[in-house]
Amino acid sequence: MHRALGRIRGSRIAAVGVAITLAVAGLASPAAAQDGATTMSDAQEEAYKAAHDTDPHTPLSAADKKAAKIKEAAAAKHQKDKLAAAGAQKASSVSPMNSIGANNLSIVQQPQQTNYWCGPAMVSAMLNAKGVSFSQSQAASMMKTTQADGTAWSGINANVPSPTGYPVRDTLNYKLNTSFYVPHGYGSATSTEKTNWRSNVAHDIDNGYPIAGDAYEVVGGKHLAGHPNSNIFHWFAVFGYANYGATTNYIDSVSGATSVSWYASVKAYNYDFNSDNLVSIMSGRGYIW
């Protein structure tokens, strides 16, 4: 959960668990709202998100835009080289190695300690996977996570030197002493965004870095596995991919989090989630990669 959780176009709505339920009538069960079970087209979903979004979507600096372009080019080349290597193996009658088209990082899922600490739980798990011990409470403090608004996508300066207005990105880079992570926000899950995700997830995972995904789920739209058919903002960590990025593996901090009423329907480790659907789920927010 993160900033704007309790605010939809200026109206104040109480948060229950990690979900905001704007349309309570006819809610589907969690199982019915999983990957692909939708009543809303991508265009309808994106229009709804745009009409109700309250995040400021802080503009990237010129330096960040340049860094993002360089990283995107490197990711595209990385993917092109992987596909070429697989093609060469196939042409030589050698069975392609699974390591070319799939990869997973070692990461330990953490149940979020409060119903609004999905961001801190994700960041703590990501940093611990990189060998940096950082608790959920420390992450919540650094990212200025609040019960009212959770952890922001943008518009909040983390308690770090020279913050950029992207608290998750700034916390990860500060604690890892790197400039590796950049925000990638987008409003529409275009074919280009879906293609770029496959390259980007392979690039980061192959370089040993998990990705911070920011889900923006709406009633009738696509949802993460096990999530109810409600309006939900939710941070989650991507730790792997398969089929050259066509499917994505992620951890979900709701699993085991008894403060969330529907925690039992969510798995800690989620494998082979359709990447195109995931890109749609993150539209209106994005990911830190």
Low-confidence stretches: 3-36
Helix fraction?
25-40%
Count of individual beta strands: 10
Quote the average pLDDT: 88
Spatial shape? globular
CATH topology annotation = Cathepsin B, Chain A
Give the amount of beta strand, in percent. Answer: 15-25%
Protein name: Peptidase C39-like domain-containing protein
Region (Disordered): 37-62
Domain Peptidase C39-like: 107-245
Keywords: Signal
What secondary-structure arrangement, pairings included, does this model have?
Layout: E1 7-8, E2 11-12, E3 19-20, H1 42-52, H2 62-91, H3 98-101, E4 103-104, H4 118-129, H5 136-143, H6 167-176, E5 183-185, H7 191-206, E6 211-217, E7 231-242, E8 247-251, E9 269-274, H8 275-282, E10 286-288
Antiparallel strand pairs: 1-2, 3-7, 4-7, 5-10, 6-7, 6-10, 7-8, 8-9
